[in-house]
Amino acid sequence: MSPRLSLALEQGGLVLPEDGRIAVFHPRLDMDLSDLPKDRVQIIQPFKPDHDGFAAQGFDCTPAAEGPYAASIICLPRAKALIRAVIHTAASCTDGPLVIDGGKTDGIDSVLKDIRKRTDIGGPVSKAHGKIFWLAAAPDMFQDWRPPETQIVDGFHTAPGVFSADGIDPASAFLVNTLPKQLGKRVADLGAGWGYLSRHLLADPKLETLDLVEADHIALDCARLNVTDPRARFHWADATRWTPDHRVDAVVMNPPFHTSRAADPGIGQAFIEAAARCLTPSGTLWMVANRHLPYETTLATRFAHVDSVASNYRFKVLRATRPSRPRR
């Protein structure tokens, strides 16, 4: 269990109800929840890899809340814009204690300060560079934190906490300006986000199918609103593990390069491996990345030809053709 949650339950005065479901919002996969009553816990996790990881442990998992709950535990998400939306959702569907846990780098001190102005709290309990506190939930307590029903940015639906929620990502825009008008009959957009690249790709009348693969369920819901062409197919999936029903002629992607605040090129490298598996023998990968990220070596091990087709002071667009089978 989270060290702070364990301490709050054992010594800090936090008492969870003996009956009813307990929601755990947005826990990270490395969080140990084994001390909670598994048969009463529902994990709310829109990020597919973590969702599947908890499901494999035997937890009931869902991408969105399915209240009511007797208690809710919120693990503060890293995206600041998502924090208030999650707290609002949890409070509106919880009849008992609302528990909020987070590290200092997650903004727990700011959240604690804001909520103390509204109501009495239990705790806080401090441990492991973070805090946990709790309060009695009320459905109308955080109505002003409710996210807008519709959030339109640059003509696209977005949502708090999704990648590039405040505008078109400049790397994706750079890739769009570099792509040829036609990529083939079958194309996949790995890490499709809220659908900016995909909507551009569907301008090609010769395109027959476009697979949008996205691990963030919230972003994919936005993509369904932004991309209404019947040729589009939506997949809530980990792009590094996804496999199409038929190999595709082209893959486009602007892969993420961090899961925390530190850059991790291993994520983009895993995307490259996935793209090579998805493509036909004559297929082409088009990807955009920050200039400093070292993807060329991985591309060279999986593709016969690799070219840098465009670059500026921030980004580079790489084209790789003729994928090879992975070495044994």
As a percent range, the share of helical residues equals 25-40%
- Low-pLDDT runs: none
> What is the makeup of the main sheet?
7 strands, mixed
What top-tier CATH class of the largest domain fits best?
A: Alpha Beta
Widest sheet: strand ordering: 3-2-1-4-5-7-6
Number of beta-strand segments:
16
Protein described:
The chain contains 9 helices and 16 strands. The chain is α/β, with parallel strands linked by helices. The protein is elongated and about 60 Å long. The protein has 2 domains: 3-145, Vaccinia Virus protein VP39 (Rossmann fold); 152-323, Vaccinia Virus protein VP39 (Rossmann fold), CATH 3.40.50. The model has no long low-confidence stretch (mean pLDDT 93).
Topology:
Blueprint: H1 3-12, E1 22-25, E2 41-44, H2 48-56, E3 60-62, E4 71-75, H3 80-92, E5 97-103, H4 108-116, E6 122-127, E7 130-136, E8 152-153, E9 156-157, H5 170-176, E10 186-190, H6 196-201, E11 209-214, H7 217-226, E12 232-236, E13 248-253, H8 265-278, E14 279-290, H9 296-302, E15 303-311, E16 315-323
Parallel strand pairs: 1-2, 1-4, 2-3, 4-5, 10-11, 10-13, 11-12, 13-14
Antiparallel strand pairs: 5-7, 6-7, 8-9, 14-16, 15-16
